[in-house]
Write a structure and sequence with these properties.
The protein is an alpha/beta fold. The protein has 13 helices and eight strands. The chain has an eight-stranded mixed sheet, sandwiched between helices. Strand 7, helix 10 and strand 8 form a beta-alpha-beta unit.
Amino acid sequence: MRNVTKALFGAAGAVAAAAVAEKAAARRLRQRVDPELDPLFRVPDDVVHHRIAAADGATLHAIERGEGRPLVLLHGVTLAAAIWSPQLRQLTGEPGRPGFRVIACDLRGHGESTAGTDGWGLPVLARDLATVLRELDLHDAIVAGHSMGGMTLMQFCADEAEALHERVAGVAFVATAAHSPLHPRVLDRAKVLGAKAIDRLDEGRPYPQLKLGGDLSLLVCRVAFGKEPTAAAVAQVRDCVEAMDPESFQRSWIGLLDHDVRETLSHVGIPADIVVGSRDLLTPVSAARTIAKLLPDAEFHLLPGCGHQVMQERPAELGRILRSLAARIEAPTARTA
């Protein structure tokens, strides 16, 4: 009995210590402010809202600001168009410096976009991208995709060759991967569990979901960042995650398990940039290097100390990379190299 009591007290002590450490870590995070970066994490009041009807009944929401070459931005899983607020503020031009017509999209099931009868999955998201490009009549666009948005862009390049040729002049893959980083055995097991989860959802039975809140929610989102992120940036990610519909959350994650476009990327002949942070724990540097090796006209950019949330952590550097990509496209040698 004495050993059982000691074990119980030990477990209780460990839980209490963990709770104290959690609160201390959250408190330190909340104290991090950046007077220059923090104001960027609010969507400008003057954005134009688009609501585009997809063929399967989905509504695709996008926000737009600025003039110039179209720059279409696709966010990662559980995020939303608002995550590109720094680019909506910084890349839309200024006196003496031309900018972009920046268009940030809510992927279906995220933000204000809804899913239709075709459901979820990267092939469906790729069709949605083609729909946005067509309905907004965009030409010579640069499309940049972050994480799942990058995977969507890769699937678009594979599936929507006509739209790619007619409407896209350059692509940027930001903190993303050409295939799942999971070990094959783990991936096979995940696919089995994912199929069971989809069956359960299709039958109208909610699949159990772990719900986080308070300090723990903030600290989980902190994992997506590199060295010393500002509290406002982490809170912006948390707000996107917590606003997402649980079913869309589950179906979107499961839809990534089949992702593997390594055999098709070599056919993407337009100028491309690959951007990754050295501290990205979700889509590591090795995944980005694989993409760079597969693309015939690619430039690789490694951002020291940066994590997964490149658009929030290093907006100025990402902006320079995208402007440089536009310059490569405009240079005569870019199309003949």
